[in-house]
Amino acid sequence: MSTVIYPSPIFGPVISRRLGVSLGINLMPADGKICTFDCIYCECGLNAQRRPTMKRPSTDEVAKALEDKLKEMTAEGRLPDVLTFAGNGEPTVHPDFPAIIDAVTALRDRYCPEAKVSVLSNATRAGVPAVREALMKVDNNIQKLDTISPDYIRRINQPTGHYDVAEVIDHLKAFGGHVIIQTMFMTGRDLEGNDADNTADTYVTPWLEAVKAIKPEKVMIYTIDRETPDLNLRKASHEVLDAIARRVAEAGLEVSVSY
After folding, report:
1. How many structural domains comprise the chain?
2. Is 74 helix (H, G, I), strand (E, B) or coil?
């Protein structure tokens, strides 16, 4: 079982494969996980294994903890490249997410104006108007789309509520290009013993067509980096990731690869 549970509301800084020196902002409880997905590759473990007993941090608690950390980093002469909403679950489910975005942006402008504000999201709430408006304010609106196969999403991402991938794609299109698509590619077996490989052409081609329709500013493709709840999952090879990245680039889209 994976054991990575992040402090709340601030953790790090950490070195992100995709974003550089990242100061994490965790809007979930410090002792558990709350997420609208239950991905079998999640480094925080499965939802049922990580039921929290603590509350989510308030807007004021997030702002104070962030300001204290930024003051500390300023005094040490080291500032983050990015302030990243991540941690123990889906950040956009926090009921005060829009207000927290405003508070974090104001502190960024005061202490580290060169830093980017990033949100790592699974896109389940991209169609909620208040959430969409907040996401349009951040520098890096990073939204997940691992595949367009409903069966694969059911087995691997395991949504905890309503999830229609066609609707999600429409919501991602509605950002008008102010969105970065992140996709996990991997191999191995799922919890049911079925193939979990989404690197074959039968998955990649329709996924790429959807990404082209979304017209994101960038595509981030990556693979497993830490222990996963399902120990039968495997990293996608460098060669496979590079081949997918070439196809994305040939479609005229900026792409990055994290091995």
Report:
1. 1
2. helix
Q: Cite the beta strand spans of 17-150 per DSSP E.
A: 20-26, 82-86, 116-121, 140-144
d(CA 161, CA 255): 30
Those residues whose C-beta lies under 8 Å from the C-beta of residue 163, and which sit 6 or more positions away, are 36, 124, 153, 157
**Can you give the residue range of the structural domain that contains 168?**
10-258
Q: What sign does the CA torsion over 151, 154, 155, 157 have?
A: positive
pTM value?
0.96
pLDDT per position as a tens digit, 231-258: 999 999 999 999 999 999 999 999 999 9
CATH number of domain containing 82 = 3.20.20.70
- Alpha carbons 222 and 245: distance in angstroms, whole number: 10
E strand map for the chain: 10-16, 20-26, 82-86, 116-121, 140-144, 180-184, 186-188, 218-222, 233-235, 255-258
